[in-house]
Amino acid sequence: MSALPRAADLGLISCHVCGLVCRAAADDAGRDGEVACPRCGSVLHRRKPASYARTWALLIAAFLMYIPANVLPIMRTASLNDIDDNTILSGVVELWVKGSPDLAVIVFTASIVVPMLKFLVMAVLLISSRFRSNWALPQRAKLFRLVELIGYWSMLDVFVVALLTALVRFNLLSLVEPLPGVIFFGLTVVLTMLASMSFDPRLIWDGRDTND
Amino acid sequence: MAPALNKAGDSRGSAPSRQICENPQIAPSGQGIECMGKTSPEALLICEYCDTVYRRRTLTRGEVAHCLCCQAVLERHHGLSVNAMLALVMTAMVVFVQANVWPIVTLGLNGQYSSATLWGTIIQMWQQQAQVVSVLAAATLFFFPLFKMMSLGWLLWFARQGRRAPGFVRIMVTLHYIGPWTMSEVFVLGALVAIVKARIYFDVVADPGIYAYAVLTLLITIFASVDLRLLWDVTTPETAI
Question: Are A62 and A165 members of one domain?
Fold first, then answer.
């Protein structure tokens, strides 16, 4: 038994939605009855229901979407005599070469590093928590919070394409059109956000008691 | 056993936040934790990230309570009063109207000019066969932020007198779920990137909309440190609800 008491050991549940501390009315097996929070009416859970299955499903779906998001072009720039299709990566390169390298770094971080980091971190968390690993607990907890915090910044590229599409409307001279890649990318971001939301970070600590 | 008071301010580098956690060494049947009823719903605090139980302590100005187990923020001192928050929400509403009415940026090419507003962008994406993106942008940049501001204004207006607004519970639950889905600050950065990209080929004139968005981002940042759950504590339910 570790020094710090945990809610599950004390028979307490904190409501996911409003944070109210409730005495667990569920039985000892850890099964929650359909007990509603007395304050906000949401169903109380010790852990988010089916956290592993949901997170894996959403993460895999997000990864599948991420492939066309990178392979397919996200934006077409058409002018009088040439048509230029940009993928996420070529957009970053263009920004680096012609515009400003500092913004290229930001876009690269938001569109490539953050999604990849999310896939990697979520997979590591899912696997290590499943095996009730005691390895690097505080660091893993911190990684999860990082992923939660930065996840939605990946939307950056989607908004860039949307704004450029609306702005560059010079009929024959110059036009910007969105291409299917941007749709897949938008879906990737939404799915990874849903995945990190359905992961219950308390699962990271659930294996701890075995060793200390 | 006396609860241990842990002050470990210097253990985490130069961060101004201090760890102020009181950890109750309580047995499951200890007194003072009858939280299911009305006795003391605020007496205990459970870390959302690792399920560790703490006895709540009043924080003084600038104090932040961190979990001893996983270092997550448990609670912050609420520097903003309900009135101050209401004022900020109203400011945000005014700025939000500006951000939506004015064009964000204007491009020029050979004497032709083209400008875009947020809704122009959303409609354009719909017409260009990117309906998914259009719906995402409309939700995260318009409808969710709008709902957030309107409902916060409504709740805070009643909270000034310590009352719960009609529909309080339902609105609080909805606010909890749409919380992570407002992305105005990402849009500002996106606009910046779009401007830099466009500058390669066009003349770019920044319009009032982008400034309104910049102010909105500032207000969002202030609000990010406010835990809306405090509204549960500063209001008391009326029998009529």
Answer: yes
Residue A168 contacts B, CB cutoff 8 Å: yes
CB contact under 8 A, A173 and B110: yes
Per-residue pLDDT of chain A (212 residues; tens, 9 = 90+): 456 788 877 888 888 888 888 876 554 444 555 788 888 888 888 888 889 999 999 999 999 999 999 999 999 988 887 888 989 999 899 888 887 888 899 999 999 999 999 999 999 999 998 888 888 888 899 999 999 988 889 999 999 999 999 998 887 778 899 999 999 999 999 999 999 999 999 888 887 654 44
CA B237/CA A99 separation, integer angstroms = 56
Among A25, A162, A164, whose Cβ lies nearest the Cβ of B133? Answer: A162
> Is the pLDDT score of B24 beyond 60?
no
Residues of A in contact with B173 (CB under 8 A): 17-18, 40-42
Whether residues A169 and A205 share a domain: the answer is yes
Residue A9: give the domain boundaries: 1-46
Question: What is the tally of structural domains in chain A?
Answer: 2
Note whether residue B241 is domain-resident. Answer: no
Is A173 part of the contact surface with chain B (CB cutoff 8 Å)?
yes
DSSP codes, chain A: --SS-BHHHHTEEE-TTT--EEE--S-TTS---SPBPTTT-PBP-SS-TTHHHHHHHHHHHHHHHHHHHHHS--EEEEESS-EEEE-HHHHHHHHHHHS-HHHHHHHHIIIIIHHHHHHHHHHHHHHHHHTT--TTHHHHHHHHHHHHHHGGGGGHHHHHHHHHHHH-EETTTEEEEE-HHHHHHHHHHHHHHHHHHHS-THHHHTTGGGT-
**Count of domains observed in chain B:** 2
Token pair 């992305």: residue: B183
A145 touching B (Cβ < 8 Å): yes
Asked whether the beta carbons of residue A178 and residue B72 sit closer than 8 angstroms, the reply is no
Same domain membership, residue B229 and residue B132: yes
In DSSP terms, B116 is beta-bridged to B105
